[in-house]
Design brief:
Blueprint (H helix, E strand, L loop, with lengths): L5 H10 L13 H23 L4 H16 L7 H13 L3 H14 L8 H11 L1 H10 L5 H21 L1 H6 L7 H7 L14 H21 L2 H4 L2 H23 L13 H19 L1
Helix pairs in contact: 1-2, 2-3, 2-4, 2-5, 2-7, 3-5, 5-6, 5-7, 6-8, 7-8, 8-11, 8-13, 11-13, 13-14
């Protein structure tokens, strides 16, 4: 990456791919800057784990050492980590959250299947939940209660993304749909490459995960009311993006093969308004 220009350009391109608004334009400049920095670092970790040529394990271990060095006061060479450094200092971000994200990507290098949904959630505890904890830290609103609710939301967001990317993940040698669900539906792994309208069993397995995610999002929704100030708005945007994604997957009847399934902006906004309205009532 070109240190002078890459972070901003790369960040904008990546953020457009997400199901949720990474840093709402309505937020003040400082929290927006911190959220962008956190997002860039988490995406860098995923990029190394998913796309880097060569020895990804070695590169992830180097990145882990670089992150540890940042917390020890050393100036990192990577422009994304340079962008992160002021946010780490200003928001007291938990180092273990980044280390868990590294561990999730190391796990991806040796594990490509999950036997049950609970096993998949175990992976999400490393690959997704730390991101929510970093967001809470940005707004200084981490408590045992908010962390527990955030974990439910983040795990749901991660599984919904896996549902959208079934064919892409299969091509990379990874299957995140639980093996027991595939076996119960009589779906062989090879079918995940194409799936689509001609294979209702494939679509049914996807919709099973969507239903689980909808329950998790509902369980995590009280988080919005637990938060105050700008944190409430930001997190409502993430949760709304998850609700809109689940709705899009249901509308597509679980067919994530014929064409990409993306949440509609209007659905995200509608869900966000509903969540904020409920949170205001609860807070009163």
């Amino acid at each position: 990456m070109d240190a002078a220009t890459a972070p901003a350009r790369w960040l904008r391109a990546r953020e457009k791919e997400e199901n949720f608004p990474v840093a709402l334009r309505w937020l003040p400049r400082e929290p927006r800057r911190h959220l962008h920095a956190v997002y860039a670092a988490t995406r860098l970790i995923d990029q190394v784990g998913d796309e880097a040529p060569g020895d990804r394990v070695s590169q992830l271990l180097t990145l882990r050492a670089d992150l540890a060095g940042l917390y020890q006061g050393r100036t990192p060479d990577d422009p994304v980590l340079q962008m992160l450094a002021p946010t780490v200092a200003a928001c007291d971000l938990p180092q273990e959250a980044f280390q868990e994200l590294i561990e999730a990507n190391l796990l991806d290098q040796r594990v490509g299947r999950y036997a049950t949904f609970e096993d998949l959630l175990g992976y999400c505890r490393l690959s997704a939940n730390p991101v929510g904890r970093l967001v809470l830290a940005v707004f200084d609103q981490s408590t045992p209660d908010t962390v527990e609710l955030s974990d439910r939301v983040c795990s749901a967001l991660q599984v919904l993304e896996h549902c959208q990317d079934v064919a892409e993940d299969h091509a990379a040698g990874r299957i995140y749909l639980p093996q027991d669900d595939l076996a119960a539906a009589g779906v062989p792994e090879a079918a995940l490459a194409t799936g689509g309208p001609g294979d209702p069993a494939c679509r049914a397995v996807v919709l099973t995960q969507v239903e689980r995610c909808e329950s998790m999002l509902e369980e995590g929704a009280p988080l919005v009311a637990r938060l105050t100030g700008w944190a409430r708005l930001a997190v409502a945007g993430y949760l709304a993006g998850g609700c809109a994604t689940a709705r899009a997957l249901r509308t597509a009847e679980g067919d994530v093969w014929t064409q990409p399934v993306r949440p509609r902006h209007v659905d995200t906004v509608a869900s966000m308004v509903t969540l904020l309205g409920k949170a205001t009532v609860v807070a009163q």
